Amino acid sequence: MTETISSKVLIEWIGILVIFSIISAIGNVIGYHYPFMESLVGMLILCGISLAGLIIETYTPWDIPSILYISILGLLLALPISPVSDFIIYYTTRVELISLTTVLLAYAGISMGKDLGDFKKVGVKGVVVTFFVIFGTYVGSALIAQFVLMYTGMI
Q: What is the C-alpha to C-alpha distance for residues 18 and 46, in angstroms, rounded to an integer?
């Protein structure tokens, strides 16, 4: 246990997760016509699991990313042997991935705009490398998808 979480950091994490939950729940209501309270409960469950994963990552001695803890915790809670799996599965299926992605990308855009000065320091070479990385990722994903779809006979 090398690090502890201050109450200020914990309150910031909770605040960000609650705001994220509310905005995503509103997106679910507008875009997918799910009831607001069901979407909000689903989002709060997902954010609670995320918060627990962040806390676990802070207090474990291993250098493992929090996403691993979050994934394992979510998986364990959703297993059929879990006493809360029906509750968790019911409410989290009321949350659409696109509503989460929209909020996440908006946050990333704001965050990137904040660091625009650092981005300018990278220069043209960094922009070119970024372009090729994004392009290569897209083409690679498209080729893999094409191969899998052809192999399975879907196209």
A: 11
Q: For the beta carbon of residue 50, count every other beta carbon within 10 angstroms.
A: 19
Confidence of residue 107 (pLDDT cuts 50, 70, 90): confident
- Alpha carbons 35 and 147: distance in angstroms, whole number: 39
**Contact between residue 69 and residue 57 where contact means Cβ atoms under 8 Å apart:** yes
Distance in angstroms (rounded) separating the CA atoms of residues 63 and 57: 8
pLDDT in tens, 16-68: 999 999 999 999 999 899 999 999 999 999 999 999 999 999 999 888 999 99
- Residue showing tokens 């979480």: 5
Residue 97 · residue 44 · CB < 8 Å: no
pLDDT in tens, 135-148: 888 888 889 989 99
Q: Which amino acid makes up residue 21? A: S
Give the pLDDT confidence of 63-94 residue by residue, as tens digits: 899 999 999 999 999 999 999 999 999 999 99
Angle 97-114/7-32 helices, nearest 10 degrees?
130
pLDDT reading at 1 higher than 50? no
Q: Are 43 and 19 in contact (CB under 8 A)?
A: no
